[in-house]
Design goal:
- The chain has one domain.
- Helix 1 packs parallel to helix 6, helix 4 runs antiparallel to helix 5 and helix 4 crosses helix 7.
- About 80% of the residues lie in helices and about 0% in strands.
- With about 300 residues, it is mainly α.
């Protein structure tokens, strides 16, 4: 079957779905609820939950996906803790493992938010699910919002496991409960904003293979040329300029200061502004690409 025939078949199936009486009744109910105050918000929340639940069920039915997402951060933690720790001196009376874990958390969230979101959306697009979603009387924003919230939950579970791994390898934070809440909140916002970056990449690349090939390459310079794993003072001068002024460093420094019970200062506000800025750019761009991709699929 040619590509044009496949597209025609999917659109025909979408038309058949719309002619289904049960779906027409759902559409009529949505119109009645939507006529009242807050109707659109109600259906946005409802549809977002449906899509998020679909993703969460996918994780529970294929737990290997969550297990494999833990392999890389655990490997980084063990390698840097036991292979490179003896050669890296951070100073200030801070052990290297305490210095390291903030960088591991941020890198884990960045990679875990960008890659799976992009691959998942590209896979749905390739298999024709986008056409099915468009045939249903549902919020288009909910398709992407539900997916990003699913990855936010998965990233939260991953970070919880990584905290336990950190304690096993000697991580001993000095921050209080409020500092930990602040650090966790910033990580959640960072994860959510980067999931929308993953959505942009997935909808632009359009195939899971393309997302896997190019979706994470751009992240490596930002995570490794930062304060995540080594003190910036040990880098060449030209690289220090980049590392000191790039956003991943701001997020890592804020997380590290909170976890170690040190004053954070304006670093946290700069990190938060970066996350909000990424979200303000990536979210509308992803929604625009979704409408275009679903139309062309």
């Amino acid at each position: 079957m040619s590509a044009l025939e496949e597209r025609a078949a999917r659109r025909g199936a979408a038309g058949e779905a719309w002619r289904d009486p049960d779906r027409r009744r759902v559409h009529s109910a949505r119109r009645r609820v939507g006529a009242g105050a807050g109707g659109r918000l109600y259906w946005l929340i409802h549809d977002t939950w449906v899509i998020a639940r679909r993703g969460l069920l996918h994780i529970t039915r294929i737990p290997e996906l969550l297990a494999f997402s833990l392999i890389q951060p655990v490997m980084f933690t063990v390698l840097f803790r036991y292979v490179f720790a003896g050669a890296i001196h951070v100073g200030g009376g801070v052990s290297y493992v305490n210095f390291l874990m903030a960088g591991v958390f941020v890198q884990t969230v960045a990679f875990g938010a960008t890659g799976p979101t992009g691959v998942g959306l590209a896979d749905d697009l390739e298999k024709g699910f986008m056409d099915r979603f468009r045939a249903l009387p549902m919020s288009r924003t909910a398709v992407l919002l539900g997916r990003t919230l699913t990855d936010l939950v998965r990233n939260t579970l991953t970070v919880v496991v990584m905290v336990a791994v950190g304690f096993i390898v000697g991580f001993r934070p000095q921050g209080g409960p409020l500092s930990w809440l602040a650090a966790g909140g910033l990580l959640l916002i960072f994860s959510f904003s980067f999931s929308w970056v993953g959505a942009v990449i997935g909808l632009a690349a359009r195939t899971p293979e393309a997302v896997q090939a190019a979706g994470l390459i751009w992240l490596f310079p930002f995570t490794f040329a930062s304060s995540a794993f080594v003190p910036i003072a040990t880098m060449p001068g030209w690289m220090q300029t980049f590392a000191n002024n790039q956003p991943i460093t701001k997020v890592v420094n804020a997380e590290r200061d909170w976890m170690l019970g040190r004053p954070v200062g304006s670093t946290a506000w700069v990190a938060l502004a970066f996350c909000v800025g990424v979200l303000a750019v990536a979210m509308p761009l992803a929604l625009r690409l979704y409408r275009r991709a679903a139309t062309l699929s």
